[in-house]
Amino acid sequence: MQAHYFIGVKIPEPVAKEMDKARRSWNLKSHKRYTHWSDMHITLLFIGNDPHNEIQAAAQELANISHPPFELTTGSVKTFGNPAKPRIIYASVGDSSELADLQRNVKEALLRFNLSPDTKAFVPHITLAGKWAGGPPLEIEMEIEPMTFQVTEFSLFRIEPGSVPKYIPEFTYQLRKGV
User: Fold this and answer.
1) Where are the chain's structural domains?
2) Where on this chain is HXTX 2 (motif) (predicted)?
């Protein structure tokens, strides 16, 4: 099986552990997958596989992105799909022009490659649970306290299904002040 990749912002450990603690307090049994705190992230761009062996060149191109560090705040708990039987439960992220700019820069940096990045609209989020398992509709109140954190880097991750963590940073890029 070919490796799959994505570019994302890793959630700092204290924030990720607090989100994990809140999610565990809900006693969810509704989903097949629950994101381990060490894998919590915001996907900037899902790439998928690397059919033309370009990931190393793409990684070098990502190193040319200049962007200052910025702050993000988590928002409320939301869902993708039918709210009673959601595909995904996630923590939203407050509006951030800096995050949108970083995502746009990442996407533009990879345009010249034959990779097949996801073309869906960018909806910044932190996945907490995925893959509806069936059963009665979800009727519990899910809340997470807003948390603010600094974004100082982003990474090119390789996906290792079945491992913990399963998102392995292949390359990490520091955001720099004064850019």
Assistant:
1) 4-174
2) 125-128
Work out whether the CA dihedral 33, 128, 123, 80 comes out positive or negative: positive
Please state the pTM of the whole predicted model. 0.94
Residues 54-67: tens digit of each pLDDT: 999 999 999 999 99
Catalytic residue among 4, 31, 36, 41: 41
52 is catalytic: no
The residue from 36, 52, 67, 125 that is catalytic is: 125
**CATH homologous superfamily for 4-174?**
Cyclic phosphodiesterase (3.90.1140.10)
Alpha-carbon distance 87 to 33, whole Å?
10
Report phi then psi at 110, rounded to 5. -100, 5
